[in-house]
Batch of 2 targets.
Target 1
Amino acid sequence: MNVKDISDQGPLWEVFIQSKSGIPHKHAGSLHAPDAEMALTAARDVYTRRGEGVSLWVVQSNSITATTESDSESFFDPADDKVYRHPTFYTVPEGVKYL
Amino acid sequence: MSRDQALIEYLIRLGDNALIIGQRLGEWCGHAHQLESDIALTNIALDNIGQCRLLLSEAGQIEGKNRTENDLAFFRDEKDFRNSLLVEQPNENFGHTILRQYFYDVFQFYLYSALKSSGNEFLSGFAAKSLKEVSYHRKLSSDWILRLGDGTSESHLKMVEALEYLWPFTFELFEMNEIDATLMAENWVPDLSEIEKKWRNEVEAHLSEATLEIPDTMGYKATGSRKGHHTEYLGFLLAEMQAVPRSMPGAKW
């Protein structure tokens, strides 16, 4: 990937931390670094000083494609009236384990 | 020299290195070129202060004169400090600080790797615990050396200047005296000439990868710290570091 300088501090990176093995990485914040490897070390120093994680991902911010405010009606509103899509809508029969 | 006396001196040597480089790195707090580096440098500072506390406390305990880590850090004078001249050199600029750190990190890495199998229980335990921190410091400073040395023409030039200034201070890290001889006989500490070989292999290869040439110092090697002879910079550092505990002895948070 072509890492272009977007400020005098280097490009912006988004940091994702996995707090325990097996569970998903969660977004923790962002930082500036000249390249991916340095972004990882910076992420270690800025976001995992207190034992927050066991694994780190960094992604250059400009490679993330995001929805915009104007998308939100068509993207998210249709789900508002479909409560049956939540598992809590259904009664769990007695005696069922591991749900 | 008795075995205990030599061990106290050795612990003070290691402890003073960690203390002084920790203090120097702490000076960057709030001043680095970006928040990320500010935090990275002060993290390394705190790791070193942590190591220093273990080392000086142990030295005080073996000595048995009720001197605590604080007594040793804040109430000794310049001539009693045994840190190498390298770590007391001023920060100058970020590249200069990183190069000083790199030399020290690689030294610490090989020294602690060897101390891990020390016959002395404190030294081996200390080294095993601290090596994890030091391995990270070494990675961080190595990464920066490549990027600054082989970076822009300005960063390269700054690294060349830093290298010319700091290179003569690297030899002293490996100087040995009676303390080393006494403890080597016990199998407690490594032969520093072995550490020097590993250090030199790694540093020479890495600097060359970073397009940096080792300067010709015309045989000049800075020396003196093993006897308490320091450069002019240590006194100022100590004055700042020791001012509060000396003006208010026994003050507590």
Note: Helices of chain A lie at 36-47, 72-76.
Target 2
Amino acid sequence: MGYKNKEGVIKMEKKSMTIIMHSGSLDKALAGFIVATGAAAKGIDTTIFFTFWGLNLIKKGGSNKAKLSEMNMLGLGKMMIKRLMKKNNVASLEELIKDANDLGVKLIACEMTMGLMNVPKDSLVPEVSEIGGVGTYLDNASKSNINLFI
Amino acid sequence: MANEEIKISTFGLNCPKPLIETRKALNKMKSGQILIVEGDHKISLKEIPQAIKDSGDEIISVEDNDTQWVIKIRKV
């Protein structure tokens, strides 16, 4: 966990994590943002790389439109889950995105899929800190302790 | 004001909010200040002290009153 420096003081080794957010589904995005915010709260440097359907989550107003990956039932399933989340005091996706930003989670948008799916930079939420490619992701991932694909 | 205490409530909040609110509060504090976190989310009673140790901050005390808990943290 830690190591001693020259003065004998235990320094904590900084851990880091990356997530590739490929899915734009509400349930998967929730799982991803819960892990990301939890990690950041534990002092782990966290980066989320948004690609393909995941880009929809960081479009302005996009997180609100995310559907369930299963049992969406034309939005009925999503309505039920949202009601249950409120009842159980589970944070909404919008709240977790804001928390992620407050805790310094880095949000990177994939440049290639932005072009492919016609997502201009100005359509993204201001919390997106960087636009990058696979090299940017791998620079982060190769130094990280935890790498997830969602 | 190094010994100033700051108190936050996480009553009713579910995973991972108690942990997030604890960290957000700590991030706004100065070194040496004390954070008192109160809540009733059972798992967070274990997970908050672990997260605090991971980041190198100091747990002063953990009080578990069965239905609710109080965790005292010193920001390093």
Note: Chain A touches chain B through 21 residues (CB under 8 Å).
